[in-house]
Amino acid sequence: xxxxxxxxxxxxxxxxxxSVVVFVFALPQHCDIAVxxxxxxxxxxxxxxxxxxxxxxxxxxxxxxxxxxxxxxxxVKAYASRYRGFGLYSIGxxxxxxGSSLYVRYCSFGGYKxxxxxxxxxxxxxSVFALLNNTMSSGTSLLxxxxxxxxxxxxxxxxxxxxxxVSNAIFAGDSWTVRESSWLDWRDNDVxxxxxxxxSEYTSILIDDSSVVTLTGCKxxxxxxxxxxxxxxxxx
Length: 236
Prior knowledge:
Blueprint: E1 7-17, E2 21-26, E3 31-42, E4 46-47, E5 54-55, E6 59-67, E7 70-80, E8 85-97, E9 101-105, E10 108-110, E11 112-123, E12 128-132, E13 135-145, E14 149-152, E15 156-160, E16 163-172, E17 176-179, E18 183-187, E19 195-199, E20 205-207, E21 212-216, H1 229-232
Parallel strand pairs: 1-3, 2-6, 3-7, 6-8, 7-9, 7-10, 8-11, 9-12, 10-13, 11-13, 11-14, 12-15, 13-16, 14-17, 15-18, 16-19, 17-20, 18-21
Antiparallel strand pairs: 4-5
């Protein structure tokens, strides 16, 4: 990412009709981005050049890297008239490094399949990825992870206070690695009769003995696991 004394990007108090906010590749260091108070109605599929992405999405991240930066998506109300969209959609690799943060909070989504669909997620070096107090009227998952997932080097994945009629809070499609004093913080989520965690047959989980998992106050139909999460991990 380019050196920067500080870049501010704001998308606020906006009405969107079949539109998308897109961020691409490495953003400047010390960048502060906020997408707030957006009302979105989407009825047509969006075609993003040079990708195979053809999805209804409010925010799209294409191989985004945040370095000592923040991205906030807050108070977004979105409705898709064609089901199977992703509220937030990250293609390629989403990287948070150097104390960066990505917060999605107080958003509501209707007609979407996943609240946040991420292909590869890397959160490291004191960074935070958080979904807080969001709602989905229906759908498959709050967080859908397609490929690799890593929370490393004193970093945090936080899912707190989310609710919705979804099949599972988290879908893990591939490897999960949590190590080097990192934290999975899952508290007070309500997915009705859905599962808190669903893993595919290809999912492997590694949580080292310096890291922590907090799972309290969640209202779920099942854990989605045939055995305790930590017993599935290579360590922990």
